[in-house]
C-alpha cells in the first residue's frame, strides 16, 4: 500500500489553492474546476470543493470543520519559511520553536482554519530518525 494524498474539502477551492501554492511553492494541477492537486515528490495535497463530497456519499466531509488533523511539511529552514510566509499567513499558532522531540517547527492555520506545521529535524536524534525518509 502507498500513501497517496491528503484531501481538504473547502467551499472556496481557489482561495485554498492560492494559499497552498504559496506555502508549498508549487503550482496546482486542476483536472476540474472543483478539484486540484499540489504535487511534491513526497506527497500530494488535494483540494476539493464541498460539492464533490456527494460523490463519496452525502455528509462524509464538511468544509472548514477539521479540528483534529495537522498538515505537516518538512522544510530545510523553518525560520526562513516563517519569514517568507509572514505576508500570506493570517493566523500564526506557534512561532518557530524547537520541540522536545528534536524538530524545529512553526504552526499556523490555513484560510479554512486547518492547522499547518512546517518542521525541520535539528537535533542529532531527530535528524537520524528522518534520515531514511524522503
Automatic annotation (TrEMBL):
Q: Which UniProt keywords apply?
A: Metal-binding
Do you know which Gene3D superfamilies this protein is assigned to?
2,3-Dihydroxybiphenyl 1,2-Dioxygenase, domain 1
Which one Pfam family would you cite for this protein? Glyoxalase
Q: Which domain of life is it from?
A: Bacteria
VOC domain: from which residue to which, for each copy? 2-121
- Which PANTHER family does the entry mention? METHYLMALONYL-COA EPIMERASE (PTHR43048), RING-CLEAVING DIOXYGENASE-RELATED (PTHR43048:SF4)
| Record's protein name | VOC domain-containing protein
Give the species.
Answer: Paenibacillus allorhizoplanae
